[in-house]
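Example complex used in Figure S2.
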Amino acid sequence: MAEEVRGSIEVDDRGSVLVARINGGPLGLFGNDVAEALDELVERADHDPKVQAVVFTGTHPNRFVSHAEVRWLQEGGAAVPPVGTRGASALAHTARGVNKAGGFKAALGKSPLWPAVQLERVHQMFLKMNRSGVVFVAALNGSALGLGAEFSWANDLRVMADGDYVIGQPEVLLGIMPGGGGTQRLTRLVGTHRSLVAILEGKPFTSQEALSIGAVDDVVPQDQVLERAISLAEHFGTRPKESRAAIKRSVYFGGSMELSDGLHLERAEFLTTALSKLGQELMLDYMANTEVAGELPLYVPGVYDAVLSTGTTRGAGVPNKTGSEG
Amino acid sequence: MAEEVRGSIEVDDRGSVLVARINGGPLGLFGNDVAEALDELVERADHDPKVQAVVFTGTHPNRFVSHAEVRWLQEGGAAVPPVGTRGASALAHTARGVNKAGGFKAALGKSPLWPAVQLERVHQMFLKMNRSGVVFVAALNGSALGLGAEFSWANDLRVMADGDYVIGQPEVLLGIMPGGGGTQRLTRLVGTHRSLVAILEGKPFTSQEALSIGAVDDVVPQDQVLERAISLAEHFGTRPKESRAAIKRSVYFGGSMELSDGLHLERAEFLTTALSKLGQELMLDYMANTEVAGELPLYVPGVYDAVLSTGTTRGAGVPNKTGSEG
Amino acid sequence: MAEEVRGSIEVDDRGSVLVARINGGPLGLFGNDVAEALDELVERADHDPKVQAVVFTGTHPNRFVSHAEVRWLQEGGAAVPPVGTRGASALAHTARGVNKAGGFKAALGKSPLWPAVQLERVHQMFLKMNRSGVVFVAALNGSALGLGAEFSWANDLRVMADGDYVIGQPEVLLGIMPGGGGTQRLTRLVGTHRSLVAILEGKPFTSQEALSIGAVDDVVPQDQVLERAISLAEHFGTRPKESRAAIKRSVYFGGSMELSDGLHLERAEFLTTALSKLGQELMLDYMANTEVAGELPLYVPGVYDAVLSTGTTRGAGVPNKTGSEG
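Predicted assembly (978 residues):
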């Protein structure tokens, strides 16, 4: 049975960075097992203060994630009578309630609600990635279609293998549409029109196309993808985790709100960081260093570059102070 | 009387694609007659399952649509005392109610509400285009200003004639502003800042500028515009209409919502397509073909390209099965 | 004391354009004095019908605004116990109420609410800039970090000095995050992903990078920045102020709403301008000129260019009529 998958995730703990290898079986599929393992990992990384970043890659030699396990999508659907959008919206709402109440392994069995509940759970996991201070980096060792692409869009950064690989949303060609956030996150990533055309046509982007429109952040030879992704994870991982969380929430959620609402969200997030222990400490340190240097540390020649490398302004601009100029 | 227009639309029925020629009189204007004819055509195309796409072009030798019939905008206004934005918002609300209740030819005559009602009706028609599974393609045989540009932005794809033609929003130069969606759809098409600057200045884009910023999808010699637009209409028209409708709604509407709300809309639209007869049929077919090929059809060399050409995965990846590799 | 600032703004009144020089002391900081002076100036420019545009520049030889006065952010925070995002949101709400009730100099002294109130005030001032018919142009004579960058994003146009200058959001490096609108306005200016990455990293854009992604509108040699900014201010300043205000509100606010809500806002703003005295006058004039010319004025060769230069269509397309072809 080509579609039978026992998906799993192998985690390589490197301290501040976790490298997670997604094993979707010989066909590289994203099914319920992968979803459950991912959810557990995201939860752990979010709560563990030692974990700054997670790099995802695929165990398949030429694919990151092929696409969703189609049986997963189809089987549940077969048990449910066709419904209009209004019915589907109600189903989605109910699924959200069930999910909140019971968690993943609620005893729903193969009830008609099951597929909607599982879909809701995947959405909640991707949203958790967006709200978290963890930096998520997709190391696209190969192609990613459908849910594989949607999982990539839910990451914060994407590095993709150069060559004959593609990333995108083919769902329209199967008479369905993206259901794991593709119409929303790709739209916010590359703009309304590019997203619309790509999803309507079902045509994926090559690595180079994805790079040119900003759908991925870097394209490197396949054997350097993981290394490059880890290096980005480490770099962004030096910034304070709580600041990153507040910034991610402000940009991902506030950035999609009406301007005044987004500004209100930003103000709340800002006040939290400004009143935090670390924020207070670093601001006092910056002020003290300004006194000593007689200049704002970020404007002392060479200091900003050094700070970008260490990740905070601690000791910046004052020669011989810990953590400053490299 | 240069401004007296008897606008009409000539429809050439080519089966799955309708070619609609907009005749706005010798000056190529978009007035109430054109609005009524357009509304009828959009309604028909949306409901007729045979119609997959509509291509719009202009009968004027060098213009798609010159701009709105200015008398149309001005006359109603003259009957109404100047109002502040709050009053105008109330007027717009009332107009929406009147429009829902009575349809186009409600016996309002030239009441002070008339212009607001007609404006509301044009907005509802453009929104209907955005919600519909029909692919709308603007074949810009020449320039399009004001309401002509706004009508273009309401289409899904735009092909424009190369040469000395322009598309954009000159309204500020007449002491007014775009009122047919220009500030909203151009903003979502080319980004907030580019849209702001263009509309504040009143300066239109040349064909090449429009292409370079993504405001149009292709620029070809004038005598190839229609042919190119029809070819795009046919290509996108091979995708399942219900999937296209769900995708368009998710991207146009969900894509402009706060992220979590947009995701909820997507989930509802996705469930509808996943539970549909065609979705179920194509997913079962894809699974069966995976069994036969021992590989996911979209990853069998050459198959994805063939599927992009036929429009669905039916029979894909299995030699000698109907509809697969071309 | 390097951080002690007596900030001020020197205004050079050139009739329709005000040139405002921001003096943030020897270190070029944006503190409470600058905020109060700015608020007063924005209010005045918004209400004075003679003022069409304001150009801001910095008195520091190589900086527009260095960044916020850090003590301003830190001191208030020190008086308040750390709060979670929910508490901070409540604080932000309360601050809004206080601000509405009392204005800037309410007798709050150094109460724990003070920093939230001042932050709220800065936000309201930037929002006032976005709602106003005044064209605000940032003449970036040098670098702008943090609140300096955020103030720049709140302008309508930005001209930046070529050379070794930077603009951006370093806050994450101090354990805080942008709090003056950076996560919202930069996101809407350059797109979600570019904004996210820049703010997460804390890395600013060079002049040339800012230009290439549209974060600034022009880059010229430092000694031509002010001249270029004034020239843009004069050009956009020829358009009718009420039209500009309506357009700015529609694009900045409507453009960030769900599509149908944005369209509703546009309709209300449009009806206000269409029913205004100036709108009616210019539309009647345009119709009369169409009669005389036997052609739509904007389509008479050479006329559109002339209109773009004068700022309205008054007399356009009719030889020897006031205000037409230059």
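Chain C touches chain A through 68 residues (CB under 8 Å). The first strand of chain C starts at residue 8 and ends at 13.
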